[in-house]
Design brief:
By secondary structure, this protein is α+β, with helices and mostly antiparallel strands. It has one domain (45-189). It is 15% helix and 32% strand. It has 2 helices and 9 strands. The chain has helices at 2-23, 139-145, and strands at residues 45-48, 73-82, 90-100, 119-126, 129-130, 137-138, 148-149, 157-167, 179-189. The strands form 2 sheets. Strands 1, 2, 4, 5, 6 and 8 form a 6-stranded antiparallel beta sheet that branches. It is rod-shaped and about 130 Å long.
Length: 190
C-alpha cells in the first residue's frame, strides 16, 4: 500500500509540473551585430632627400662627393617616412658598399690607406638626436657593425637621418682615384 501511495504522489507531481510548465509564457527577443570588419594595418616605408614629400619608395644620391680631398666633409639628411597606418617599433639601418680600389698613378707617391677606412661618420642624428653608437665610425666599421636600431617611427610620421661624412686627414695617396658606392638599408618593423 505504501508503494501505491508513493506512485500516486509521483504521478500527481509529474502532472502538476507538466500543467504548470504549459501555462508559463517566455518572452524572447534577438538582435544582431553586423558589419564587423577586421582589417590589417600597414607599415609603408618611404625615403626622400627632402622633408615633407611623403615618399613611398627608395631614394638615391643622398650623399655624393666626387672630388673629395682629405679633410673634406659631405653633410645631408635622408628623410625616413612611415606613411602606413601602424607605428613601427623599430627603424633599423645597416650599411653596405662596393669599394673600387684603382692603382695609384705611377707619377704619384705610393700610399697605404684604403678609402673605406678613411671615410668617417662624424655626425649622426636621428630626428635631431645624436646616435653616439655610430658617430666617429669608419665606413668599414659601420658595415661590420651590422644592424643598428634607431627606435620607433609612428604612423604617418617622418624623421630625418642626418649624417656628416668626413674624409680623414690621415688619408694618403693610397686612396687617389678610388671610389666607394654606399648603400644605406632602412627597415621598419613592429
Amino acid at each position: 500500500m505504501n508503494t501505491k501511495i508513493i506512485v500516486s504522489l509521483v504521478v500527481m507531481a509529474a502532472v502538476a509540473a507538466v500543467a504548470g510548465g504549459a501555462t508559463v509564457a517566455y518572452f524572447t527577443d534577438t538582435e544582431s551585430s553586423t558589419v564587423n570588419t577586421f582589417a590589417a594595418g600597414t607599415l609603408n616605408l618611404g625615403l626622400d632627400n627632402a622633408p615633407g614629400v611623403n615618399p613611398t619608395g627608395s631614394e638615391t644620391a643622398t650623399w655624393v662627393a666626387n672630388t673629395w680631398a682629405p679633410g673634406g666633409t659631405k653633410d645631408a639628411t635622408l628623410y625616413v617616412n612611415n606613411a602606413g597606418t601602424l607605428g613601427a617599433s623599430t627603424t633599423k639601418i645597416s650599411f653596405d658598399y662596393v669599394l673600387t680600389d684603382v692603382a695609384t698613378p705611377a707619377s704619384v707617391d705610393a700610399g697605404t690607406t684604403v678609402l673605406d677606412n678613411m671615410i668617417k661618420a662624424t655626425v649622426v642624428k636621428w630626428n635631431g638626436v645624436d646616435v653616439a653608437s655610430l658617430e666617429g665610425k669608419t665606413l668599414a666599421q659601420l658595415k661590420a657593425a651590422g644592424i643598428t636600431d634607431l627606435g620607433a617611427l609612428a604612423a604617418n610620421t617622418e624623421h630625418g637621418l642626418q649624417i656628416t661624412w668626413t674624409l680623414d686627414t690621415a688619408a694618403d695617396n693610397g686612396i687617389q682615384g678610388d671610389s666607394v658606392d654606399v648603400t644605406l638599408n632602412v627597415a621598419l618593423g613592429q
